[in-house]
């Protein structure tokens, strides 16, 4: 069985590739920059871009892990079906379960379901890796995190656990037609997450509280993903691009650890502290 992994160098995709390869499966890893990709021996690395469906290498593939690109999802899925792909596992978002008609994940889920192929949707909430994209530049440069709302809670999930659920859905029976909402195993505040990063580094990393406006300005200066998502992450926008207030959310009832990871994998979900130890080099 050959599995195509799109978005193979992403935070989750690279784990999907590695876990499939380590389990002995034949893997084709698709990336826009194959020359810089580093994967286990035996992985077939190919160039492809979801924005150019004709470049997606679906020939000879039986199953596919699909990164969410809504603009071309219908065409990519149609090409996969015509090539003989029988099962697609999509990386989606917990926002879909929450009832948000997102422009990002929902169209991809709809395209896959309409194809008639076997499918599973993976819907993680807060990615632990997002904290590296938010705070990594500050920690690396100054060993400090300047951010808003230090007591805001998170159920951040280890990217490797997201990937492990996706791999199970790709390679095992019993997951077809299901969607899996994923969270980490414990509720931590942002201040506690920063403390876990410091513990992994073996150094103190203070959390310096700033206003939401100041935090947004900091992220915008950083650029990249942090700047693009600053408005949503800090409560200036919701999934419909409208206004929302952090204080209007009843976090005590909205954030509850879900048992999905242990139910699917037969082991506990990994903690944020474990994620920080596994990714400590990103903060050095």
TrEMBL record:
NAD(P)-binding domain location: 7-172
Signal peptide: none
InterPro entries xref list: Ergot_Alk_Oxidoreductase, NAD(P)-bd_dom, NAD(P)-bd_dom_sf
Protein name listed in UniProt: Uncharacterized protein YbjT (DUF2867 family)
Organism the protein comes from: Actinophytocola algeriensis
């Amino acid at each position: 069985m050959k599995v195509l992994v799109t978005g193979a160098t992403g935070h989750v995709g690279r784990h999907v590739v590695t876990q499939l390869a380590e389990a002995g499966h034949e893997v084709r890893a698709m990336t826009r920059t194959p020359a810089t990709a580093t994967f286990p021996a035996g992985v077939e690395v190919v160039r492809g871009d979801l924005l150019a469906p004709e470049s997606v290498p679906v020939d000879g593939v039986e199953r596919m892990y699909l990164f969410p690109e809504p603009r071309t999802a219908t065409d990519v899925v149609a090409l996969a079906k015509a090539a003989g792909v029988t099962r697609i596992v999509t990386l989606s978002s917990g926002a879909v379960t929450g009832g948000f008609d997102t422009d990002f994940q929902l169209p991809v889920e709809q395209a896959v379901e309409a194809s008639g192929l076997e499918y599973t949707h993976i819907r993680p909430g807060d990615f632990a890796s997002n904290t590296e994209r938010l705070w990594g530049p500050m920690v690396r440069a100054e060993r400090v995190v300047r951010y808003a709302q230090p007591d805001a809670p998170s159920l951040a999930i280890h990217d490797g656990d997201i990937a492990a659920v996706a791999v199970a859905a790709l390679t095992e029976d019993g997951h077809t037609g299901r969607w899996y909402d994923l969270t980490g195993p414990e509720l931590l505040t942002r201040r506690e997450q920063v403390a876990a990063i410091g513990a992994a580094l073996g150094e103190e990393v203070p959390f310096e509280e700033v206003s939401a406006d100041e935090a947004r300005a900091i992220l915008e200066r950083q650029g990249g993903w942090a700047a693009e998502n600053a408005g949503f992450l800090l409560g200036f926008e919701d999934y419909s691009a409208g206004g929302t207030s952090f204080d209007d959310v009843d976090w005590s009832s909205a954030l509850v650890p879900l048992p999905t990871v242990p139910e699917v994998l037969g082991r506990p979900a990994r903690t944020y502290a474990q994620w920080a130890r596994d990714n400590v080099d990103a903060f050095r």
